Every structure is written in structure tokens, then in C-alpha cells.
Amino acid sequence: MPSMHALSPLFWGLNLLPLFVGAAPSSAAADKPYSTWMADSIISYNIVPQTRWYTEATFYRGIEAVYNHTASPTYLSYLTTQIDAILTSNGSIKGWDFADHQLDNIRIGSTILYLYTVSAPKNPRYKAAIDFLHDRLLNHQNRTPSGGFWHKDPKYPNQMWLDGLFMAGPFSAAYAALFDAGKKDLWDDILLQFALVEKHCRNQTSGMLKHGYDESLKAVWADPVTGESPHVWIRAQGWYFVALVDVLDWFPRSHPGWETMKKWFVQLAQAVKRTQDKRSGGWWLVMDEGYPGRAGNYIESSGTAMYTYGLLKGIRVGILDEKEYFGVAERAWGLMTERFVARNGTNGGLNWEGTVRVGSLDGKGDYNYYIGINRVENDLKGVGPFLMASVEMEAYKARTL
Ligand SMILES: *[C@@H]1O[C@H](CO)[C@@H](O)[C@H](O)[C@H]1NC(C)=O
Ligand SMILES: *[C@@H]1O[C@H](CO)[C@@H](O)[C@H](O)[C@H]1NC(C)=O
Ligand SMILES: *[C@@H]1O[C@H](CO)[C@@H](O)[C@H](O)[C@H]1NC(C)=O
Ligand SMILES: *[C@@H]1O[C@H](CO)[C@@H](O)[C@H](O)[C@H]1NC(C)=O
Fold first, then answer.
1. Residue whose CA is at the smallest distance from ligand 3 atom 11
2. What pLDDT digit, counting tens, does each position of 216-275 carry?
3. How many whole angstroms from 202 Cα to the centroid of ligand 3?
């Protein structure tokens, strides 16, 4: 539900006239919030296909944050148009492939659920789509012997990737909270997904988590004892960081899992703080000890935006200490607005730079694989988290004015 901020939508929308041709983006920042500026730019380029894929859903999460923050009907109508295009008249999802079970397909459920909660009257087509996706997850997604959802079935049997916690976690938690709050086993099941990843992927010394693990130990990359993959990949760990802080919004405080997940989040925040690149303020694509600064490694923008969002939100909801973490987020924010936000030609729009296209455990998951993937301009997996971080930063500034 859009909870209105103290500042009116008018305040945030006031300075949207294209007066900034030729100026560096940062010089206009005082006048024009990056959240709406970036959102309006990307929407205006017509580069967001009307599909149900997680890439778009990640961008929509950013637009949700912007709508939540501005209450501007433009963003709600944009989301509605994008989602209505993928649903049939009875709320089934167009082109659904019933043989393809992957957590990535579940992420759009969060967008639809958000629309359901903010639309009045409640749209039964959205509810049908939400119920459908929840049923696909709960009753049709294969599980490891310990109960963890396979990342993709049949492609990645018995594998859990950190990415999957973002794809299905906040959706399951919101669903449980809104429609099934009494069912303790739903909460236990959500907690279990995080607990399995913690057990297999977390390094208690560094505080960081490897990209994924294979419970059957069969993947070419699987460590013969733990099943974990070889590296800490910035975005996988970013998905996980966001998943934790977003799930905490819904998870009942009365459930012991709330404290446990909070502890995991804070432990990761500590690692994120420790591994921030001192010079730039961002984070390296491959983050394990010994890799930052290596030939081919670089400061990646989508992960940097995810960590910034997580830190700022953690401060806002009172689970991270402001004195300890705000400076970290502020340095990363400086980097993003100076280096990753760029002008798009002379039309006053913004581009988002430096987001790695993909990172998968399809091959060997080794260092050369990760650094060999190209970076893409205006990649929605980076734009979405940047919007989320921008909204948090703008809300922070409004609070502390
Ligand atoms: C909307 O904003 C409120 C207040 O800041 C926050 O508690 C809530 O989590 C936000 N929701 C979304 C979807 O961003
Ligand atoms: C919903 O509509 C689609 C096609 O428009 C159809 O295939 C499907 O059977 C319908 N589902 C229900 C529950 O009526
Ligand atoms: C765990 O982290 C420590 C500290 O960064 C590192 O030395 C060690 O190699 C890591 N272990 C694994 C299995 O990655
Ligand atoms: C502006 O953004 C669009 C969409 O990503 C892109 O196709 C175009 O190349 C960009 N133009 C410039 C000058 O950056």
C-alpha cells in the first residue's frame, strides 16, 4: 500500500522539465530526484518488453518503490499496463510453460501481488495469477532431499542459487502474510530456504556467500564436501541481501525465524561493509578474498546498487546502525551517480551503465567465466535496484533534513 511520505508528490515531480541539457547529471541532482528521473527515462525509451520474466519484474520492483514514494498515478498506470499485457481475461498467465519449473518465473508474482494490494477495487484477475504462481511454487517445484527448491527443473537438479531467494522469497512471504498468515508451516518453509543456503554457501570467516550449492554434489563446479560453487558473485549475493531485507517486511516478528534472518542480514551487511572498495566506493564483480583488483575484475553496478539499497533500508527499518552504515551507502551512492548514471544524448534522459548481463552456474562457475560476460547499458537488473536505492536515499534525506 502506498504509504505517503511527508513530502507531497508535487515536490518530487516539480522539477521534471528538461532544463539540464549539457549539464553533468550530478549538477542537477539537487533539483531533480534520481528516482523519478531514471524511471521516467527508462520508461520513455520503450525498452521494457511486456513479458513475465524476472528481468522486467526486477525493474517493476524499482517502479513500485518509486510509486510508493511519489504516489504519482503515472507509475501505477505503467505497472498496470505492463502486467495486464501478460494476463488473459481470467487472470491466467499468457504463454505459461507447464514443463518449465524455475524460480525465475515466480518473481513476477511480487509485482502482481503489489498491484493487487494497491488497486481498488481488488482485481480478481490479479488474485487468480497470484494464486496460480503460489501453487506452481509450492506444489510443483521440485525440491532437494533437505527441502530446498531446485533453482530450475529439469536443468539444475538439486541446486539452490542465491538468486532464487529473491525470485521466490519475498513473494512467498507476502503471500503468507496476506492470505495465509495463520499457517506456521509456510513460514517454516520460507525460513528453511534461507537456512539451507546459509548452511551450504556462507563462509563464517568472510561472512560472504558463494553463488550456489548442489546438494547432490554432481555439478562440475560443486565442492566435493559442501557442494558449494567456487565464487562469491556480486549480484547473487545482492539478490540474497535484498531478499532478506524484503522478506523481513512480511515475516512475523513472533516467529523465531525473524531474529534468525535479521542476524543473517546483519552478518552480510558487515561483510558488505568490509568488502567495499576503498577507492571507488563500489563492489567487485567477483568478491572472494584475493580477487578484488585482479586483471579482468571490475566494480559492477547492479550489485553495488543492491548493497546500497539493502544498507539504506536496513537503517530505515532499524536493523542496521546508521552511524556504522550510512557512510558506506553514501560513498556507493556517490559512485553510482557519478559513474554509473550517464546522460542519454541530449534529450535530458539518463542511462544506467555497468551492469553485467548474466551470471550463471550453467558452466564451470569459475573466475574466467564471470569476468568474460559483457556489461550492458540500461540493463533492467541494474536499473531496478538503482531505483530502489534512490528512493531509499531520497527518503533518508527527507527524514534527516
Ligand atoms: C512503501 O513505503 C513504506 C514507508 O517507507 C515502506 O514501509 C514500504 O515497505 C514501501 N513499500 C514498497 C513496496 O516499497
Ligand atoms: C483462462 O483463459 C485461458 C485462455 O484465455 C484458458 O486457456 C484457460 O483454460 C482459462 N482458465 C480458466 C480457469 O478458466
Ligand atoms: C572463507 O573466507 C576466508 C576469508 O576471506 C578465506 O580465506 C577462505 O578461503 C574462505 N573459504 C572458502 C571455502 O572460500
Ligand atoms: C539512450 O537509451 C536507449 C535505450 O537504452 C539506447 O538505445 C540509446 O542508444 C541511448 N542513447 C544514447 C545516446 O546514449
1. 203
2. 999 999 999 999 999 999 999 999 999 999 999 999 999 999 999 999 999 999 999 999
3. 10
Q: Which atom of ligand 4 is nearest to the CA of 345?
A: 13
Model confidence, pTM: 0.93
Q: What is the pLDDT of residue 351?
A: 98
From the CA of 96, how far away is ligand 2's center (Å)? 11
Ligand 1 centroid to Cα of residue 5, in Å, is 10
DSSP 296-329: T--B-HHHHHHHHHHHHHHHHTTSS-HHHHHHHH
Cβ atoms 371, 286 nearer than 8 A? yes
Cβ–ligand 2 contact at 90 (below 6 Å): yes
Amino acid at 58: T
* Count of Cβ atoms closer than 10 Å to residue 256 Cβ: 11
pLDDT band at 369 (very low <50, low <70, confident <90, very high): very high
pLDDT tens-digit readout, 59-106: 999 999 999 999 999 999 999 999 999 999 999 999 999 999 999 999
CB atoms within 10 A of CB 195: 18
**Segment 35-65, tens digit of pLDDT:** 999 999 999 999 999 999 999 999 999 999 9
Residue 347: Cβ-neighbour burial (10 angstroms; 0-12, 13-18, 19+): exposed
Nearest protein Cα to ligand 1, atom 10: 68
98 lines ligand 2 (CB under 6 A): no
Strands (E), 184-338: 212-214
Does 92 sit in the ligand 2 pocket, CB within 6 Å? yes
Q: Which atom belonging to ligand 4 lies closest to the Cα atom of 343?
A: 14
Instruction: Return d(Cα 210, Cα 197) in angstroms, integer.
Output: 9
At residue 16, the pLDDT reads 31
Of 58, 60, 68, the residue with max ligand 1 atoms within 8 A of its CB, to mutate for a pocket test, comes to: 68
- DSSP at 27: G
